[in-house]
Structure formats: C-alpha cells, structure tokens
Specification:
The chain is an alpha/beta fold and 384 residues long. The chain is built from 13 helices and 21 strands. The strands form 5 sheets. It has an 8-stranded mixed β-sheet with strand order 3-2-1-4-5-6-20-21, sandwiched between helices. A 7-stranded mixed β-sheet has the order 11-10-9-14-15-17-16. A hairpin with a 2-residue loop joins strand 20 (363-366) and strand 21 (369-370). Helix 6 packs parallel to helix 7 and helix 6 runs antiparallel to helix 11 (326-343). It starts with a strand and ends with a helix. The relative contact order is 0.15.
Length: 384
C-alpha cells in the first residue's frame, strides 16, 4: 500500500503529518511512502531527510494523492474553493487519516463521503488506555497548555515566581486555570514550574486530584448533576449550575494576575465563561490567554487570532498554538498516526476492522456515507 503525506497549506500551519522517523518505521512495516516537496520545511525537515529513510519526494500534489491508498494530513483535506482540491485528487476507496475535526469541517466531510473515501479523524479516537498512543488531540493540547503559559509570562508586567532580592521580596503571580483536561493540566504544571501561585477549576470534580498532583489548588462548585460527558470531556451545565459557576469564576478572575482558559465542550466547542464584567474587574496589567480560541473562545472579549487590550487587561486568543512548536508538534502527531497505522497493519497493508472500538470511534465517512452520529446530526442541522 502507498502512503502519501501532503504539504499543509492552512493559514498558520507549520506542522507535517509524518516526520522521517515515522516514515522509516512504516517503510519497514511494508508500506511505500511518498511525501510532497517541502512538506516538512516549516518544521525544519528537509526533503533529503525523507529520501534518506527511503521515502520518495514528489512535486505534483495531484499525482501524489491520486496514487495513494492512504493519505495522511494534519488538517482536513482542502477543497476547490482553496485553489487546491485535495479531496478531488484522492482516488475513490482510498483512506484519509488526520485531525479532520469533522464538526468544524462539514463541507470537507460531505466531499469525502461523496468521493467514497474512508475518513478517520484522530481527534475522535476514544480516550482509552489502548488508544492513548494514537490520540492527537491530547498530544496537541499538551503543547497548547505549555505554550499558553509562556505567552502569559512574556506579556505579564511582573515576575511569575516569588523572588527575594536586595530590594525586598517580590510576590508570585496569581494564576487561575479554567478547565483541567490535557491542556489545562499542562498549563497548571508549567505555571507552577515557573513559580506561580496556581488555582484551577473544572466542572468535573473528579479531576481535583489531578489538579493537585501537578501543583495546583482546586476550587469548584457542588454540581446538581454530573458534567462529565465521558472520555475526559465535559458537557454543558444546567442553568442553576452555570449561574453558580459564574459566581466562582467572577471571584477568582478578579484576584488573578493571569487567567488561562481551556474549556471545550466535547473537545470541540468553547462555552463563553468569562464575561466583559469579569474582565473589567481585573487589575490593569493582568493577562488572559484564551486557549479555546480555535473553538470560538471562552472569553466574550476574545478575538480569535488576535491580541487585544481592554481596560488595561491583555487578552491573547491564539489560533493553532501547537503549530508554533512545529518540530515537536510534528514529531508527536506523526507518532500518533504511526501508532494508529501499525495497530491495524497486517501482511504489509492497513486492515479495515470496523468492529474494532478504535476504528469505530474514529470513523467519519465510509462507502459514501457519514458514519459518525454527531457529524450526521450537525449536517442535518446545517441543512435545515
């Protein structure tokens, strides 16, 4: 079977789906591997690095994708309106593997189904022990949590750690992290390593021990009903719980130097948690880093992709933050895809097994149909 790795063309994207390390492993497993010219350049990976491990490099993306049985990408394949119709170039019956984010890329999903392409979305892989090595969502969220704290530290008008100097003591920055999934936990750990005084909250009280294990202090409310959606995700709160959550957030935000928000419903959509009034209550010089900007943002005043200042408070809403650490982001993403492929490789070929829980969870389109229930619902809603 032939694997093709396409060059990413999305704005702000510097990652590549496979690094040479993974190409070598897959070639040893029996695959033929072709990479588009310049695919790894933004990650610091030359075409020569790919040819050195046995991959071929091709300049014509249409021919590359048209000859592939498996197409690997970081992002959803592009459509005609981008000037580069990757879905049309892929042959019917081939397989796409990458972070499709189907609820955000419904047109791409429809095009893949129409082309009878089997599409697996790695951000939909179930969060089970067996699937951990394949989970791109967690790998990339880890980077976002780390980098988000660095952005806050660079912007903040004070030190993060407590320091004893000849001129007296400097108190530590007060950091408040909203959401304690992968990105939130990494943000807590990084802020703690930098010396901040870290408090964190999550609508899932079962994460209290995880917050404390990485150096944060947990604050939360007593919920009237569970907010856990399973698989490490949260669901929307009831009206009463949401009101009490807002009171807690308002109290914590007002006394914080840095607020880092990471909350996503189902790992995709960002609930609006920080109001304009909360931002107004913060001290001049305070910083908000909205790590949910890709899902629309957790703060009412966030402008995804921009940094704004409101009443002396800086609000940073970065898009595609993992791409700003392209070498290691590509390395981890590549290892995730390789783990997925190798788990289902037999006789030098990828074996479809739609009874397997991992393939079932990640499957979005197959034989001309949209198989993922949430994606079908979103398409129906968009059509009505």
């Amino acid at each position: 079977m032939r694997i093709a790795v396409a060059r990413e063309t999305a704005p702000r994207e510097q990652r590549v789906a496979l690094v040479p390390e993974s190409c070598k492993k897959l070639i040893q497993s029996g695959y033929l591997l072709s990479v588009e010219t310049g695919a790894g350049a933004a990650s610091g990976l030359s075409d020569q690095a790919y040819t050195d491990v046995g991959a071929t490099v091709e300049a014509d993306p249409a021919a590359l994708l048209g000859s592939a049985d498996l197409v690997l990408k970081v992002n959803a394949p592009t459509l005609a309106d981008s000037g580069r119709d990757e879905v049309a170039w892929m042959k019917p019956g081939s397989i796409y593997l990458g972070s499709l984010m189907p609820l955000r890329n419904l047109k791409a999903v429809q095009a893949l189904a129409g082309r009878k392409i089997t599409a697996f979305s790695t951000d939909a892989i179930p969060r089970t022990t067996r699937a951990q090595a394949m989970d791109t969502l967690s790998s990339m969220a880890n980077i976002s949590g780390y980098k988000g704290v660095l952005l806050a530290a660079a912007e903040l008008n004070k030190y993060f750690p407590m320091l004893m100097t000849a001129a007296g003591m400097v108190p530590p920055a007060k950091v408040f992290v909203v959401g304690a999934a992968v990105a939130g936990l990494q943000a807590i750990a990084t802020a703690k390593r930098l010396g901040g005084n870290v408090v964190a909250t999550d609508v899932r009280p079962e994460v209290k021990e995880q917050i404390e294990s990485v150096g944060g202090k947990y604050v939360g409310i007593e919920l009237s009903e569970s907010a856990s959606a399973g698989g490490g995700y949260a669901k929307e709160l009831s009206a009463d719980d949401r009101a009490r959550q807002q009171e807690l957030l308002a109290a914590q935000v007002a006394q914080s130097d840095v607020v880092i928000t990471t909350a996503l419903i189902g790992g995709v959509f960002a609930p609006k948690l920080l109001t304009a009034a909360m931002v107004k209550s913060m001290k001049a010089g305070a910083v908000i880093v909205d790590l949910a900007a890709d899902g629309g943002g957790n703060c009412e005043l966030s402008r995804p992709g921009e940094t704004v200042t409101v009443g002396g408070v800086t609000i940073i809403a970065p898009l595609n933050l993992p791409s700003t650490v392209p070498l290691h982001a590509s390395l981890l993403f590549s290892r995730n895809l390789t783990a997925f492929l190798q788990a289902f490789t037999k006789d030098k070929a990828f074996q479809l097994d739609l009874n397997d829980d991992i393939q079932q969870g990640a499957l979005i389109t197959y034989e001309g149909e949209v198989k993922n229930a949430r994606t079908r619902e979103a398409l129906q809603k968009a059509a009505s």
